[in-house]
Structures are given as C-alpha cells and as structure tokens.
Amino acid sequence: MKDIIIQYMKKFTDLSDAELEKIAGSLPITTFEKGRILLHQGEVPDKCYFILKGCVRQYAVDENGKEITYNFFTEQQSVTIFNKNSNDKASNYSICCIEDCVLVEGDLSIEQDMYELYPGLEKMTRKIIVENISEMHYDFAAFMVSTPQERYEALLKKRPGLVHRVAQHQLASYLGITPESLSRIKKRLE
User: Fold this and answer.
1) How sure is the predictor about 84, in pLDDT bands with cuts at 50, 70 and 90?
2) pLDDT surpasses 70 at 75
3) How many CB atoms lie within 10 A of CB 50?
4) Which of 37, 100, 181, 187 sees the fewest Cβ atoms within 10 Å?
5) Which residues form the Cyclic nucleotide-binding domain (predicted)?
6) Is 169 part of a structural domain of the chain?
7) Please, are residues 115 and 108 in contact by the beta-carbon 8 Å criterion?
8) Measured over all CA atoms, what is the biggest interatomic distance in the chain, rounded to whole angstroms?
9) What b-and-e string marks burial along 110-132, b requiring 16 or more CB atoms within 10 Å of the CB?
10) Domain contains 123
11) Nearest Cα residue to 135 out of 63, 59, 73, 42
12) Which residue, among 92, 54, 86, 37, has the nearest Cα to 70 in the 3D structure?
C-alpha cells in the first residue's frame, strides 16, 4: 500500500525517494467496513482521507429528508471537506464508505506540524488540491450544460467501473435524475 502512496506523490513533487518513503511511512493507514460513516453532516471535520482501496460517497440530507449524492471517491482520490472559512466550520456533507475501504487517514489538527516536519509537503499538497479543484470545476461546468443521458455517458467514459460499484438510486441522485430515468437511459443505450 505504501508503494501506491509514493507513486501518487511522485506525480506532484520532486522530493527524493527517501523523503517520500519517510512521509509514506508516517501516514496512518486504516481499514473501514462498508457502511462506516467517516463524517456526519453538521460535524466539524478533523480528518482527511486518501483512498487506497474502496469507494466513499459524499452526500447530504436536505430539509425534506431526501439524500442527495454529490460525489463518489475511489482509489487514488482524496476526500477532504474544505470549510475552514465558514462561520461554524460544520460540514454540509456526510462521508460514508460504500465498500470496505483501506484509507490513509490524515489528522487536520497536525497539518501544520506535518508541513514543518516534511519541507515540500505543503507545496505538493497545494498542487494536489489545485488539480482536484480544477477537475471539480470542469466536471461541474460539463454537468450544468449536459442532458441526463450525456451525464451518464460521460460517467461511463470517465469512470466506467463506478456504475457497478454503487447503488443505482445513489448513482441517479449523483446524475441529478430519478432512478426510473436512469433505468430508461440505460435501456436506450443497450
């Protein structure tokens, strides 16, 4: 598992192999069972995660009690709720393991200590965040101008295995459609 972390970090930094080995060796790796809630909506996040194995869902429950899926995270993706600048710092989302997961579990309370301990880590983290945010902006813009069928087709192209890993009602919510509409789209494409 440590090799996965090192290879991922190499894409964003020119730190030496010895430095990467040291950083990867200091990161706690935790196993979570399917169904484990990592963060409840309304809690203040104190952890961030990097997925080595498994699938995690980001969702919220609206005022009518309806669950809305905002994202799915799979291998080699990071899961962080950025809300340091909000007034109460409470998360608008819940984070849940929808498969058994192996995750790097980062402690946000020691983030600055890690940056001081490992010079170059902050720059690498910034590069990762910029890439993640850029991808989210692109995906959101594409989502806004596409039809439900185009959204589904784009998902199949970009993340083909995801449709077999998540519940169809959650996938439909993520695509902004009803489960019945998703079924019709799938039938049309068969």
Assistant:
1) low
2) yes
3) 22
4) 187
5) 11-57
6) no
7) no
8) 55
9) eeeebeeebebbeebbeebeeee
10) no
11) 73
12) 92
**Structurally, how many domains does the chain consist of?**
1
Which residues, 6 or more positions from 167, have their beta carbon under 8 angstroms from its beta carbon?
98
- 43 DSSP 8-state letter: S
Rounded Cα distance between 132 and 128, Å, is 6
Using a cut of 0.85, tell me whether the model's pTM lies above it.
Answer: yes
Nearest to 107, CA basis, from 80, 126, 125: 80
**83 band by pLDDT with thresholds 50, 70 and 90:** low
DSSP for 54-69?
S-EEEEEE-TTS-EEE
186 is a domain residue: no
Q: How far apart are CA 126 and CA 132, in angstroms?
A: 10
Q: 166 Cβ partners below 8 Å, 6+ apart?
A: 55, 57, 72, 98, 174
What CATH code is carried by the domain that includes residue 13? 2.60.120.10
Q: Is residue 187 in a domain?
A: no
The enclosing H or E element of 16 equals none
Q: Domain containing 46: what range? A: 2-118
